[in-house]
Every structure is written in C-alpha cells, then in structure tokens.
Prior knowledge:
The structure holds 2 protein chains of 2 kinds.
Chain A (H helix, E strand, L loop, with lengths): L2 E5 L3 E2 L5 E8 L8 E6 L5 E7 L6 E3 L7 E6 L4 E6 L8 E8 L7 E4 L3 E5 L2
Parallel strand pairs in A: 2-11
Antiparallel strand pairs in A: 1-3, 3-8, 4-5, 4-9, 5-6, 7-8, 9-10, 9-11
Chain B lengths: L3 E4 L2 E4 L5 E7 L7 E6 L6 E5 L3 E2 L7 E6 L2 E6 L8 E7 L5 E2 L3 E5 L1
Parallel strand pairs in B: 2-11
Antiparallel strand pairs in B: 1-3, 3-8, 4-5, 4-9, 5-6, 7-8, 9-10, 9-11
Amino acid sequence: QVQLVESGGDVVQPGRSLRLSCAASGFTFNTYAMHWVRQAPGKGLEWVALISYDGLNQYYAASVKGRFTISRDNSKNTVHLQMNSLRAEDAALYYCAKSHGGNYKYFDNWGQGALVTVSS
Amino acid sequence: EIVLTQSPATLSLSPGERATLSCRASQSVSSYLAWYQQKPGQAPRLLIYDASKRATDIPARFGGSGSGTDFTLTISSLEPEDSAVYYCQQGTNWLTFGQGTRLEIK
C-alpha cells in the first residue's frame, strides 16, 4: 500500500528558508516521478514542482521558480522541497504526491501534507 | 497557462439524485483531464483520469466525459459520503487545477 509521509512544516519569517521532506513506501519509488502540490488555507490546489523518476529533470510553477528546489534520494525513497526567500503567499499545506503511471500528468497518491506558515 | 473554470461553485442535492459537475478549459487539453475528490481534513483522491477512465477502486457511479475544452463529472446516484469538493486538473500544458465545486448532500 502506497504511503507518503511529509515532514518539515513549520512557522517561518518572510525571507527565510525551509526544507520539506516526503518519505515514500509501498511502491517502487525510483520508477515514478514525484510532485509537490500546495493548498493555501480555505483555497484550491496549486501544483508547485515535479521531479522525474531519475532526478534528472525538474519543473516548477512560475510562482516558485528560482526560489524552490525539488530533489530526490532514490536510495532513501525520499523527495525534498527546499524553499528559499519565503513569502506570505507561500503559506499553505504542502502535499507530496506520486505521479500516476508512467507520465507526469496526474497524481494518484497523496500524503497528508506539511503545514508551512509564513509570518513575522 | 491553461485556466480551468468549474461550475457550479456549489451544488446541493439529495441522496439518490444525479450530480453533474462541469469543467471548461481556456484552450484545448485534448483528453488530458482528471477529477479529484477532497473531503474536509483529507488529501485529494484521484477519481478520473484521461477524461473518462476511473482510477483504482473508484465506484462505478463516478463517470467522466468530454474532450477538448468541455468536460463533465457525473455521479449517477449520490451517496451521503459523496459530500466533498471536486477539482478538475489538466495535464497538457504544465499542470493546473480548477477552483473546485462544493457538493453538498442534503
């Protein structure tokens, strides 16, 4: 059974950095692309970043490009999101999500989320 | 960026009724559209992908249709547990979501 467990959520000041992690189990991790998707309190869903199964390719939403970095460690079945220069609008519940099948298009399993609060 | 517009914003129906939720794309997404269900305090769950294919373990009462710019999620006979927010998402040009439709079961 697929399990995704996020960690690292915290309260941080604007301009500071934070690193989220996602521990994966129950599937062959190194054969699936992985995503981060966020949801601001009471709002809808926003895709944030994607990393290919081998870690060689990363893609970002325009709202975070240049500030966030997605990475993965296939030896540890983990994916990370390094968030720099955080802004108030980055405050959200960040979900780790597994790609559906062999493509990047959809998300078929989600974690329960890591809460990031950006406040001075 | 492809914008997805969902309608209605809120839908209130009784158990056993049929629900029809719409999603319109600002440009063609071919059939690369998915639907998700999100209940309060829970992560989203994939219901439909490629516009009409049911995901694993999704009941047959959930159906998807459409292509190009207009898509529909149909729940044929509502159950109380179908109360949730439903999001559409396109996978053609980057990845974007609609703003959601809240479905209330009376």
